[in-house]
Amino acid sequence: MRFDIITLFPAIFDGYLTQGLLSKAIQRDLVEIHRHNLRDWAPPTPHRPVDDKPFGGGPGMLIQVEPTVRCVEAVEASLPGESNRVVLTPQGKRFDQPMAEDFANRDRLLLLCGRYEGFDQRVMDILQPQEVSIGDFVLNGGEVAAMVIIDAVIRLVPGVLGDEQSNIDDSFSRGNRLLEFPQYTRPREFRGHTVPDVLLGGDHAAIARWRAEQSRRRTLQRRRDLLGDPQNLEIDNLEIDLNQTKRNHPKSE
């Protein structure tokens, strides 16, 4: 999968691209990240300006339409195939796991990172990008939001994760739209806090039922909105696929 990032500050991504799963995915040619400096399409003056004061007055500056449109068109023309345009803006549709899953099915994603007071409205009118927000708050620019989207999407690219089941069972994911169950590792006891007995008994069907119930309880306590009408929600509908569990643990049969 290829990401094209259009930004005024490409160096912000330097550290991000060299760490963790993303770095490994890039090294294995599972993911491509290309950064494009918007100033490269600015008028050839000493400061290469890409922003100006808004018509009608008001605080701040707006990113101009001409360099932005030219940049996007040039980047898209550099490779064949469809480019899916996304602009990061607080006014966009809220980014969530289903949207990440949709993006992961695309071959190429172009991320437009705004700055200052945002883009001239004609950028939206001409390019018709999908407007996306990562939450009801305002950042200094779209770069951090672009990292959030990339981080969520690459986990869904086949081969990026060591265990493909991870992105199915995660909170909000297609195998579990609820919050994930609590998990434990060694030691069994620490400062009076112990691991639940059910996780130690080796009964994988019982573990699956316990995890489904814990997922429901946690969601009910923290994100009731994800449950719809809890009165109509049966625990059986939340259980992890027992057939998958048996395949992973054949000794439990």
Q: What key phrases describe this protein's structure?
A:
253 residues; alpha/beta; Alpha/beta knot; Trp Operon Repressor, Chain A; 2 domains; five-stranded parallel sheet; two-stranded antiparallel ribbon; disordered C terminus
Please specify the SSE layout and strand pairing.
Blueprint: E1 2-7, H1 20-27, E2 32-37, E3 51-52, E4 62-63, H2 65-77, E5 84-94, H3 97-104, E6 108-113, H4 121-127, E7 130-133, H5 143-154, H6 166-169, E8 189-190, E9 193-194, H7 204-222, H8 242-248
Parallel strand pairs: 1-2, 1-6, 5-6, 5-7
Antiparallel strand pairs: 3-4, 8-9
Helix pairs in contact: 2-4, 3-5
Description:
The chain is α/β, with parallel strands linked by helices and 253 residues long. Helices cover 31% and strands 16% of the residues. The protein is built from 8 helices and 9 strands. The strands form 3 sheets. Strands 2-1-6-5-7 form a 5-stranded parallel β-sheet, sandwiched between helices. Helix 2 runs parallel beside helix 4 (121-127) and helix 3 crosses helix 5 (143-154). The longest helix has 19 residues, at 204-222.
